[in-house]
Amino acid sequence: QAQLVESGGGSVQSGGSLRLSCAASGYTSNGACMGWFRQAPGKEREGVAAIRSDGVTMYADSVKGRFTISRDNDKNTVYLQMNSLKPEDTAMYYCAGRSGWYLRLTPKDYNYWGQGTQVTVSS
Fold first, then answer.
1. Closest to 86 in 3D by CA, of 122, 37, 46, 48
2. What are the beta bridge partners of residue 24?
3. What is the DSSP code string of 34-82?
4. Cα separations (Å) of 47 from 27, 60, 93, 108?
5. What are phi and psi of 104, to 5 degrees?
6. pLDDT tens for each residue of 100-122
7. For residues 9 and 18, is the Cβ–Cβ distance under 8 A?
8. N or C: which terminal CB in the chain sees fewer CB atoms within 10 Å?
C-alpha cells in the first residue's frame, strides 16, 4: 500500500519562505520520480517541480530561482523549499509519485498522491 504524507503548509507574508515535506512509503518510496503540484481555486492543477531518483530536477518557469526540490532517499522524504513567496503562489500543494524514469510535470502521469497542504501568501 503506497502512502504519501505531506506537511509544512501555512500562511506567510509576501517574500517569506516555507518548506514542504513529503514522507513516502510503499511502492513510491523507490519510484523513479517524485513531484510537487499545486491547484488554486478555479484553476487547473499544475506541476511545480519534479525530481528523479538520482537527483536530477526540473521546474515550472513560474518558480525557477525561487523553489528548490530535493530528495533524501535514506529518510524516504521529498522536500520543496519555497523562497521569495508571492501571493500568486497561494494554492493547495500536492506531493505525487510515479514509476517512470523521465521527469514529468503533468499530473496525469503521476499515480500516487498525497492529501494536499494549503499554502497562503499575503501581501
1. 122
2. 4
3. EEEEEE-TTS--EEEEEEETTS-EEE-TTTTTTEEEEEETTTTEEEEEE
4. 21, 7, 10, 10
5. -140, 150
6. 888 999 999 998 999 999 999 99
7. yes
8. N
